[in-house]
From TrEMBL:
<dbReference type="GO" id="GO:0046872">
    <property type="term" value="F:metal ion binding"/>
</dbReference>
<keyword id="KW-0812">Transmembrane</keyword>
<protein>
    <recommendedName>
        <fullName>Molybdopterin molybdenumtransferase</fullName>
        <ecNumber>2.10.1.1</ecNumber>
    </recommendedName>
</protein>
<dbReference type="InterPro" id="IPR008284">
    <property type="entry name" value="MoCF_biosynth_CS"/>
</dbReference>
<dbReference type="InterPro" id="IPR005110">
    <property type="entry name" value="MoeA_linker/N"/>
</dbReference>
<dbReference type="InterPro" id="IPR001453">
    <property type="entry name" value="MoaB/Mog_dom"/>
</dbReference>
<dbReference type="InterPro" id="IPR036425">
    <property type="entry name" value="MoaB/Mog-like_dom_sf"/>
</dbReference>
<keyword id="KW-0808">Transferase</keyword>
<dbReference type="InterPro" id="IPR005111">
    <property type="entry name" value="MoeA_C_domain_IV"/>
</dbReference>
<dbReference type="InterPro" id="IPR036688">
    <property type="entry name" value="MoeA_C_domain_IV_sf"/>
</dbReference>
<comment type="function">
    <text>Catalyzes the insertion of molybdate into adenylated molybdopterin with the concomitant release of AMP.</text>
</comment>
<keyword id="KW-0479">Metal-binding</keyword>
<dbReference type="GO" id="GO:0006777">
    <property type="term" value="P:Mo-molybdopterin cofactor biosynthetic process"/>
</dbReference>
<comment type="similarity">
    <text>Belongs to the MoeA family.</text>
</comment>
<feature type="domain" description="MoaB/Mog">
    <location>
        <begin position="172"/>
        <end position="310"/>
    </location>
</feature>
<dbReference type="Pfam" id="PF00994">
    <property type="entry name" value="MoCF_biosynth"/>
</dbReference>
<dbReference type="InterPro" id="IPR038987">
    <property type="entry name" value="MoeA-like"/>
</dbReference>
Amino acid sequence: MITINDAISKIKASISPSFKTTIKTIEKANGYVLANNIISPINMPPFRQSAMDGYALNLHDSLTYKLIDEVKAGDPHQPILKPGEAVRIFTGAAVPDTANAIMMQEKVKTNGKQITVQHNITQNLNIRPLGEQVKKGDIALKKETKLNPAAIGYLTSLGITEVSVIKKPDIAIITTGNELVEPGTPLKHGQIYESNSKMLQTALYGLKFYNVTLHKVEDNYEKTLQLLNSVIKTNDLAIITGGISVGDYDFVGKALKELKVNEIFYKVKQKPGKPLFFGKKNNTSIFALPGNPAAALSCFYIYVYMALQKMMNRTEIELPRKQAISSCNFTKKGDRPQFLKAIYSEGKVEILEGQNSSMLQTFALSNALVFIPEDTQEVKINDTVETILLPV
């Protein structure tokens, strides 16, 4: 059995970033990391553009101008303005080549075909220059940029329809246990509804990892061996729940050993989640989590989350931690460090009731985990505690 810090260090040392690439259409690229620099195929804006509704002017010495035309956004025509002439123009419209300033409409008085501006204006006022945002041939976004909705919108505005990105891992979730049945099936005595797969799949989707397959296996050694062999060959990450303890019908550990999976560690001095396994075979990482749902999810956030970030070559690979003021008392049982489900808000944290590793109701209310180290037995109101913020 190893310590939490040793387990974290071993995961960091064992997982290397993946640099496999794939092509994604722009609308499906959110959350991915660019594999290459994106070179702008056009100037943006692709023409001199009006920054507001108003009047485009060919400047002269007077404040009075003759109104000769109108240009709306999307109009292709180019009115020719002589000095002292103006056109009505709207935000986003192409500024005529012969116009050299725009006065906003609030500062213009109109009288039929004549307008008067309220004061002298400078060259290029309120005109977005050609290529102001990015010029054709320049780098629009650098490689290793993580794409977000703004980046998707920006690249779309350049006419880009697909991008080369770092491929996200293929992930298999394997649940074990004869007692598990799918929701929608009437429960027989001794059965429970299987929830870990959907829980972990949802957690992965929330982190924008979508290449996830679900698998279920009975408590049967040959079937466990066959399934694990298949998923390890075809996935970058395998997450197993249940079957990793030492009961008569816990076959995961035995199967992993027969498959020659390199055991990095097994069992961590912590609560919940002591029977946690991490290993590797070739380029596939394998986590075997406890079967109890709350323990499985705690281990996912502390360890699997970090492994996923490392695979994606991200710099911030652990969930954020804050020092928070406890709003309640808590007494720890035993000598193992604990991760406690909690609610964090504005520098304060409440440790919740119902910390049993099989209970998800409390976890459903939580947005944080409070970490209680080995040498701390009691938390009192107004004590400062280390708080791990969960993804929202």
